[in-house]
Each structure stands twice: as C-alpha cells, then as structure tokens.
Queue: 3 jobs
Job 1
Amino acid sequence: PMSRAGMWPPADVRERVAAVHGAAALPELLGLYDAWAARYEEDVAALEYRAPVLAAAALAAALPGPPAAAAVLDVGCGTGLVARELQRRGFGRPDGVDGSAAMLAQARGCGLYRELRRCVLGSEPLPAPAGRYDAVTAVGALGEGQVPSAAVTELLRVTRPGGLVCLTTRSNPSNLRYKAELEATLERLERQGAWEKVLVQEEERWERATSEEESTQGTGYISGVVYIYRKCPVSPQPES
C-alpha cells in the first residue's frame, strides 16, 4: 500500500503553494509569484492541477460559435496553462493579463498569446474597453488572499453582451469563506439581470491537496468548481 507521505506532493512544492495562499498583502503575493514563475509549471504538474483543462473544455462546450473566431481574454494568465488548453480546443491566440511580471515573461516565451499586459485585478481596471471580448476566463485567480470576488464585475465589463465569463475557484476548507462570498456576488449579478448561469461544474479531483486538513475525505485531493455565465444582451436597470 502507498505510504501516507506518498499521498502528498513534494515538500518544497507544498511550501510554495502554501506561501501563495497565505500571502499577507498584495506586494508579497506578487513577489512570491515572481519567484515561483520559473518553477511554476513543474510544480502544478506535480499537483495534477486540472483547472485549466476543465475550464477550457467547459468554455469550448458552452461557446455558441467556432472557437477560432472568439476573442478571448485570459485573466491571471500566469505562464500560459489556459492558453495551451484553449489552443488544443481550436481557439485562436487569447490576450492575457497577470499581476506578476515574471509570470508574463514566461507566458511571452510560450508564444500562445496575442497580447500580454500587466494588470493587478482588484486594484486596477482591466486594460480593455467595455464589451471587447467574446469570452473572459479567470482560472485559478479567484481565491482567498488573491483576486477579490467583487472584481468579477470588471470581467463582466469587458465581455460583450451575449459573451461568456468562465471562472474557477477551489472548494477546499481554507477557501470556503471566499467561495461563499464569490457565489453571493455571482448570484447578486444574476438577480440584477447582468448575466445568466450557463454551467456550474463541481470537480472532486481539482488538484492534489497539500495537507491533511485540506484534503477531501482523505482522498489526497481538493475539489474545485468551474462556473460559466452568459452576459445578458440588455444592460440591467440600476437598483434604485
């Protein structure tokens, strides 16, 4: 039988993941991501991180037209994991934004993006006009201590009416408070008529857990969720 230790990713990988999820403030978080950039893809492979695959597959399935024609913005693009999965499903080159300069440098090297810009979502607006994109993805960026849930309105702003917004978050214990806040925000926007829910897909094996406390029922994995919303064609009336 597999030893308990064999259930977890290597210790140094666990430390880097824990550091990012436990960052105290934004400059510290960006510094950690900058330092992690060169090893990031290696580490997420060790984590069996499936969010990019799941999100790209869900988006391809929900998209009404041919993926090659869709203008896509990948928010929190990191080193380019989502762009790679989108390309596999017939999408053209997306635009990407990320808060970490070192992550953007790695993404540039993969050659899968049309345009890459630095932007710290949550503290500044996205560098795009309203209604610019057919689909906007935020995969892995929405979580405790990372992008605040209120920033989803900014994702919605740059999506064209009828376009899709694809979000992911984790369902592990330390992210549950954030997930509840995020879902309250998503539901409020739906009640206001800003968008409509297309898909909510819970996934048991999102990525390998980095501790016993975070693991789902002793599986050694944490769960996560993909959300897809369609921006409503008519802009909603502001609440009086």
Note: The helical segments are 11-21, 26-36, 40-46, 51-62, 81-88, 101-110, 152-157, 176-191.
Job 2
Amino acid sequence: EQNGTDSAKAPKVNCEERNTTGIDHFTLQILNVSQDLMEFLNPNSSDCTLVLFYTPWCRFSASLAPHFNSLPRAFPTLRFLALDASQHSSLSTRFGTVAVPNILLFQGAKPMARFNHTDRTLETLKDFIFNQTGIEAKSDVAVTEEDWEGPLPSVLTKGIDWLLLFSVLFLASFVMYATIRTESIRWLIPGQEHEHQE
C-alpha cells in the first residue's frame, strides 16, 4: 500500500529545471507568425516548456490570459510560450489542438501532457504543473493588475477571419459556376432558351 501511495505522487515528467541565476524578470514569450515553435524547444534536452495555443478573438483565451501571464513568476525554472493558433495552423494540426485555448507540456520537443480542465485558473494550472512535474509553485504568486495587461492579451481582438471569408466566397463562386454550366437549368437564363443547332 505504501508503494502505491509513493508511485501516485511520483511526477510523470522528469523536468530539468533551468538555471535562473541573473534572471530577474520572469515572463512568457509570445511567438510571432514568422517564429517556429520547434526553434524554441530543444529536442536534446529534458527541460520543460508549457505552450499555450490561443487566438486573440477567443473569449476563453482572453479569460485565461491573466492566469497564464502569472505562471512564469510561479514557476521560474520552467519556460512558458504562447502562440496564435490561427497563425500557426500547421503546428495546431501537428499537435492535435482542434480547440483553443489548448495547453501542452513539452519535455524537450516532445509533448508529454495536455491540460484538460475547463476551470482555467492560476490554481488549476499550478496543480496541473505540480501533478505532471513535481515542481512546486511559489506560494506568494497571485494574478496581478499587470497580468491583465499582458503580455498575453486579456481583451478580445475584433477581426476578420480572412481564411473563412475566402472559403465562403470560393464556395459561392463554385456553386454559381456549376449552376450556370448545368444543362438542365439553362432555360432559366435569359437568351439560352432560343439557342438551337441548325
């Protein structure tokens, strides 16, 4: 029984904690459209990185933002990255992030665990990291006013999904073209009903 209790408390991911000497400001890094996640993950290392896939117009991503912004202070020995899933669609496909926000724990360049809770607060995120890695959070960290301001935006961005708009226009154009080219409805188009082969 004692062995079962000990094994239940053992971390699932054995993370190499990074050296924090000389670092006085712990923050997450947001990848821009030209940066590749794989450049920031070292496949030959056992250090751990928590990666958030989000979109700026998703209200769930916005409500998670201040909590995720505070995590680097709670776990200074881990790295935290965030990327806009709509700008990195190939990565979203590669790691199976069909919905946002989506949080993956990487060891080196390998995804080890996915955060699957609907309650996305600092406390549930701390519990997730502790349960996976065994690394305890600093107890004095709380969500502050600065965490609401950034670096991850907690205010929804209004924008146009250009890919969706293009898809709808393409589909509408195709349907119109197919309709016009169909023999059975040529009589609906003015001038087409009098064309005969002579």
Note: Helices lie at 2-9, 37-40, 59-74, 89-94, 122-133, 145-149, 162-181.
Job 3
Amino acid sequence: FKSLKISLEYLVSIGNICRSPIAEAVFRKLVTDEKLEHKWRTDSAAVSDWNVGRFPDSRALSCLRNHGIETAHKARQITKEDFQTFDHILCMDESNLRDLNRKSNQVKDCKAKIELLGTYDPQKQLIIEDPYYGNEKDFETVYEQCLRCCKAFLEKYH
C-alpha cells in the first residue's frame, strides 16, 4: 500500500495567545476547507513560558469568531520534540526567528525549516506585528496577514 507523508506546520509567537493561535486557526480552516486535514498536522506555541495553559486573548477569539472560525487552543511553549517532528516552523517576527534558531541549534536531529510566516505574504509584509497592546483593528490586521500568508504557504506546499 502507498504511504502518506504528512506535512506539519508549526506557528510560533512570543506568548502564543494572539498571533500564533490566529495563524493556527486560519491555517486549520484552510486545510479543512480544502479537505486536506489528513495531510497536515498544525499546532502553535510560544518561545516564552509566560502564558502556558491560557486560552487566546479575548480579542483574538473575537476576531476569529467574526470570520466564522473557532479554536480551543491553549498556550504552550515550544519543545525540543517540535523541532524534530515538524517540517515547518513559521514565526511572526525577527525576535521569534532569532530565539527559534538559537533553540534549534541545541536540538539534535532538528528537521524543521524555520522561517517567517510573512515570507509567504503576497503583499510582502514580512513582519506580523504583535497586536497585544493594540485594539481590535490590530487583531484584524493580523488575521488578514495570516490569511494571505497561510493561503500562499498552502499553495506552495500542497
């Protein structure tokens, strides 16, 4: 019988309560809408341990609900196993990228390709800014960026 390679996407931000849960939920919905959920495993995490166990920010949840997307995500911190398991680890800004590259250098058998999610933005907005200290409009901007980037990423790797 034919074996199936499962592609794995992992989304990372500093606290895992705003940007990365939005990106995770958006990507999961895209994959489900395309009936590709059997080919993808999607998760998100933080580089820090500040919010471990917390649900996403209420403004992130509200933004997702406004677009018909639900999530039951709880924040967690990235692990060594994530670097060994996931094919892609996509992050939101240069600080995340530096932290992830540093952490990955300490992991034997790191297989993940680590890059900015914004690399896939057709509008070339490389950085997805943290909306935590902003307002609902800032969360909507993050959603729109994540949607563009996740669509382009999925098109490239599907």
Note: The beta strands are 7-13, 40-46, 88-91, 113-116.
